[in-house]
Amino acid sequence: MGKIILDKMAMQRALTRITYEIVEKNKGVEDLVLIGIKTRGIFLANRIADRLQQLENVTIPVGELDITNYRDDIEHDSTSSDVKMSNNKIDFSVEGKRVILVDDVLYTGRTVRAALSAVMDLGRPKSINLAVLVDRGHRELPIRADFVGKNIPSSQKEKIKVYVSEIDDKDAVELIK
Amino acid sequence: MTQRYLILEDGSAYAGKAFGSLATTTGELVANSTMNGYQEIISNQIYHNQIIVFTQTSIGNTGLAQNAYESVLPTAKGVIVREYENLATDHFKRISLDRYLKRHKIPGIYDVDTRQIRRHLQQKGNMKASIVDVADEHAFDQLHATVLTNQQVAQVATPKPYPNPDEGANVIVVDFGLKSGILRELSKRDCNITVVPWNSTSETILDLDPDGVVLSTGPGAPGNLPESVLQMIREVQTQVPLFGIGLGHELFAMANGAKISQLRVEHHGSNHPIREIITNEIFFSGQEQGYAVDSKSIDHAKLFITHIDLVNGTVQGLRHRDYPAFSVQFSPDGAPGPKDSVGLFDDFTEFMARRRDNNGDEY
């Protein structure tokens, strides 16, 4: 059991802030699409889409991105034909769209790097922004988030655990020593 | 006990018994239906030049606490209660409601059917009233002849800037007659606060290098303040995160083109459910309002309506589309009332942190 950094209310507020900031920065919601990175990023992307629906009365498409094949810590067999097989659920074109990538925690930046490659393979978006619930620092790549719910400076020995009520028993962000 | 009278502009009179000061006063009559927090209510400068009727039946039964005043010098014009208790719970067992009112020259009347007065106001609308010794023709003539000031903000707001130092974000609070709860919540978040007079220019404010600016609560009609205040808001909102509360919310709305209308009956209480539109969440908060933003006048290309009062449909919150500038009509600091929405202060500090991280280049 770790220390709770964000409780249910704080998590909701963080997503609300991110939603307003997305509209602010994009000057509206035109051509906007949300892509959640598996697993918890998808639920967070859906919640942001719900908020945009409430706010602007528009349905923003939400895609689910599986970056397994793009990870740099798994040896790929380049001769195998199933390398690019993935469990993406993105039933829209990203061509010319303003893509908002959504993930729960931004840490080394390697997941996001993989997600960028995966999205680029799907088409040429007009822009890609990154929204994360938590930025915990310790980047290993030149990557930064455009929308951050909460900055949580952490030590590399600590773990940050995000719970979402859709698949976990609660909404919370915990710091585990 | 001395008999005294509350007389109303429409000719009605209520006899009761005197407590507090024996001064004769005139002010706008408002009814507050909050169940607790009489100390916070009486000391809130939003009640400047107003006579407060408490519908809660017993007032004064918790004593006054040194950490619960909303201003140092209360300027309400009277306190009307059904029943009053003279309990002191401070360290020296000295400060009871009676003593507090005497010290600040505020008259009180008890043994009055305050809920009947509330109902009367609900039917007849806002009106002036006086607390007098004799309810004769002369007293009513005096009441009718009295012109209440429309310079409330200038009368209660600080004339000079003052600091409330800490080590966090640099926050400028523009004082329109602020309640201390705002400073308390900013202090809890380590903000280094400078309170500046209501008529400060954007140049003065921005020269203090703020991370964010708060437009405080205050008494009276926003329309009584000069255009220069709206100009200040228009210039500041493009530069740093802005948070308006109460009168500050009304001014933020006006600065962005919305119109304000006076409520037929002022609303003071914490019993109205408020809906946050973006999440569809319902919560409660302390509300003290005589005016409301006219929802039809809002330019949706500029402002989002963020919160709605579910009882009377009034706009309770706004946010600018292009800047991290937002405002609420209610009191997110509680004091008194629920603290359901106190997280708005966290939102404000997060917006300030974001601006600092980005060195302001997001603007």
Description:
With 177 residues, chain A is α/β, with parallel strands linked by helices. Chain A has a single domain, classed as 3-Layer(aba) Sandwich (Rossmann fold), CATH 3.40.50. Chain A contains 3 helices and 8 strands, in the order E-H-E-H-E-E-H-E-E-E-E. In chain B, a hairpin with a 4-residue loop joins strand 1 (3-8) and strand 2. Chain B has 10 helices and 21 strands. Chain A binds chain B through residues 9-10, 12-14, 16-17, 19-21, 23-25, 27-28, 51, 54-55, 148, 150-151, and chain B through 276-281, 304, 319, 321-324, 343, 346-347, 350-351, 353-354, 357, 362.
Q: Can you identify the CATH superfamily of the largest domain in chain B?
A: Class I glutamine amidotransferase (GATase) domain
Kindly state the number of beta strands of chain B. 21
CATH topology of chain A: Rossmann fold
Strand content of chain B: 25-35%
| CATH architecture assignment name of the largest domain in chain B | 3-Layer(aba) Sandwich
**Helix amount of chain A:** 25-40%
Query: Which chains make the largest contact?
Result: A-B, 21 and 21 residues
C-alpha Rg of chain B (nearest Å): 20 Å
Number of domains of chain B: 2
Q: What is the highest CATH level, the class of the largest domain in chain B?
A: Alpha Beta
Termini gap of chain B: 64 Å
Oligomer: heterodimer
Q: Which H/E pattern describes the elements of chain A?
A: EHEHEEHEEEE
Q: What's the gyration radius of chain A in Å?
A: 16 Å
- What about the largest sheet of chain A? 5 strands, parallel
**Pairing-aware structural class of the strands and helices of chain A?**
alpha/beta
Q: Please indicate the percent range of residues of chain A in DSSP E strands (runs of 2 or more).
A: 25-35%
